[in-house]
Design goal:
This protein folds into 2 domains: 13-57 and 334-465, Beta Barrel (Lyase, Ornithine Decarboxylase, Chain A, domain 1); 59-257 and 292-325, Alpha-Beta Barrel (TIM Barrel), CATH 3.20.20.10. It starts with a helix and ends in a 5-residue tail after the last strand. Strands 1, 2, 13, 14, 15, 16, 17, 18, 19 and 20 form a 10-stranded mixed beta sheet that branches. It has an 8-stranded parallel barrel with strand order 3-4-5-6-7-8-9-12, surrounded by 7 helices. The protein has 14 helices and 20 strands. The chain is an alpha/beta fold. It is elongated, with a radius of gyration of 25 Å. Bound molecules: pyridoxal-5'-phosphate. Pyridoxal-5'-phosphate (PLP) binds at residues 84, 87, 105, 128, 215, 251-254, 326-330. Pyridoxal-5'-phosphate (PLP) is lined by residues 84, 87, 105, 128, 215, 251-254, 326-330.
Length: 470
């Protein structure tokens, strides 16, 4: 056998990846390097930890935090960043936020425990959420965590609690429900807001009032600008009451670019029922092809005209206010991937196929929200070109669930090579709610494992379990 033929055989037995061409993910170079240069590592990790396997990169979250801090710093507006820990269950990512020196936005005693365990000082923790239990409230007061009060009822309850205990005053923000969000169950509307301010002003020993909080659905910065403009009236009202608001926290909602904007727009313009196994285009999607990333979004927000002829940054400075943000998804941008091992490919009537993977839609959960993750997985064939059939194939992806509608994708993806048992499908950028929001032990399958990728002192990448704390 000639050396050339041997080379061909060797090449064909090596793992090889195929980038999808419909909605290819934007990839951080660290993740691209793993896929391109060390696919064998991925196979070994899945062999060791099972499928699906979630891999997180804490360093990437740290980089994202630095970038947002850089934008805020150069605006000259005093700022605080709280990592929205609800976005992912990874303790490694919480630890990365602590290492970056930013605060944590928590909504449960468990998230609080993770934040403190990671080394975040309690004064850098902000507790949001509308339904805190009494025990949780007591702990927040005792630890001097900043509490975002969601309703007049919660404020009255805290008032009662503080009357009975000596751990006060409670550090609080009042969460505002802007005029644009009247249908939301979160926050306090304008009428009750003034009442709350008077209640707080009447109890200076019980409440250490620090300012205002708002979090909106959606990803447009102008809604946040409008909300800040509305809040300025309350800042002045609070000051007239003798209170000292220092901060406006505008919550999360900073966007991620999952796929290139033009590619995404082209896909949306071209898609039809034909692209979905159930013949139905979902009514709404996350804006996967955002034209701006989180840092650019923040620049636009700071420069946007707000009120009284001032841009938002200038207004905040003029009012001596700190701007706080609570990015969840955008801090987790690129910080995780989910890898599914292929189990079987089955032909279906009508010429389509289903690729069965080890795992389920609970680790790729958009279909549960009647939507779709509009980012294609990367197919990594175990045996390179040799075994994979070149025939293109349209297929949706399903897991081990016995429910017809429980699928990883309803979308029919084009595979240029037919996946084989043992191949991997890698979904990039799953750190933002996608990988573990709905995970469960359906069919008694154990929860997927999560591991973290870090660099050791010599600069080599090492993978270790990133298990939940006991
Ligand atoms: C109060 C609050 N802050 C921050 C976030 C994080 O939002 P995102 O992940 O869109 O940045 C959320 C998400 O629901 C939230 O409810």
């Amino acid at each position: 056998m000639t050396a050339l033929v041997l080379d061909d055989i060797r090449q064909s037995l090596r793992p090889r990846s195929w980038q999808p061409d419909t909605l290819p993910p934007i990839l951080d170079p660290r993740i691209n390097a793993l896929i391109q240069d060390a696919p064998n590592t991925l196979f070994s990790l899945v062999e060791q930890y099972g499928s699906p396997l979630n891999i997180v990169w804490p360093d990437i979250l740290q980089d994202n935090a630095r970038r947002l801090a850089g934008v805020l710093q150069s605006s000259g507006v005093p700022f605080r960043i709280f990592y929205g820990a609800k976005v992912n269950k990874s303790p490694g990512l919480v630890e990365a936020a602590a290492r970056a020196g930013i605060g944590i936005d928590i909504s449960s005693p468990y998230e609080l425990r993770d934040a403190l365990h990671a080394g975040t000082p309690p004064e850098l923790v902000c507790a949001s959420g509308p339904a805190k239990t009494r025990d949780f409230q007591r702990e927040l007061i005792r630890r001097k965590v900043l509490i975002s009060v969601d309703s007049i009822e919660e404020l009255q309850e805290l008032d009662g609690l503080l009357a009975e205990c000596s751990d006060g005053p409670a550090r609080i923000l009042l969460r505002y429900r802007p005029a644009s969000a009247t249908a939301s169950r979160f926050g306090i509307g304008a009428v009750s807001f003034s009442k709350c301010l008077r209640l707080v002003a009447a109890q200076p020993g019980r409440f250490a009032f620090e300012g205002f909080h708002v979090h909106l659905s959606g990803y447009q910065y102008d809604g946040r600008v409008k909300a800040v403009a509305e809040l300025i009236d309350f800042v002045r009202e609070a000051r007239a009451l003798g209170l000292d608001p220092q901060l406006i926290d505008i919550g999360g909602g900073l966007p991620i670019q999952y796929v290139a904007a033009q590619v995404y727009d082209d896909y949306l313009a071209a898609q039809s029922d034909w692209h979905y196994r159930n013949g139905t285009i979902p009514k709404s999607f996350y804006p996967y092809g955002s034209r701006v990333d989180a840092a650019q979004w923040l620049e636009l927000l700071l420069a946007a005209p707000c009120r009284e002829g001032l841009a938002l940054a200038e207004l905040l400075k003029a009012e001596a206010l700190t701007l706080a943000i609570e990015p969840g998804r955008s801090l987790a941008d690129q910080a995780a991937v989910s890898v599914f091992r292929v189990n079987l490919v089955k032909a279906l009537p009508g010429g389509t196929h289903v690729v069965f993977v080890e795992g389920s839609s609970f680790s790729a959960c958009e279909t549960w929200f009647a939507s779709e993750f509009l980012v294609d997985p990367i197919h990594i064939a175990r045996d390179g070109g040799a075994e994979a059939e070149v025939l293109p194939m349209r297929a949706f992806i399903a897991g081990h669930s016995c429910l017809d509608d429980d699928v990883v994708t309803n979308r029919l993806l084009t595979f240029h090579r037919r996946p084989k048992r043992g191949d991997l499908l890698l979904f990039a950028n799953t750190g933002g709610y996608q990988m573990d929001l709905l995970e469960n032990e359906f069919h008694r399958h154990p929860l997927p494992r999560r591991i973290r990728a870090d660099r050791d002192a010599a600069g080599a990448v090492v993978f270790t379990p990133d298990d939940a704390m006991e």
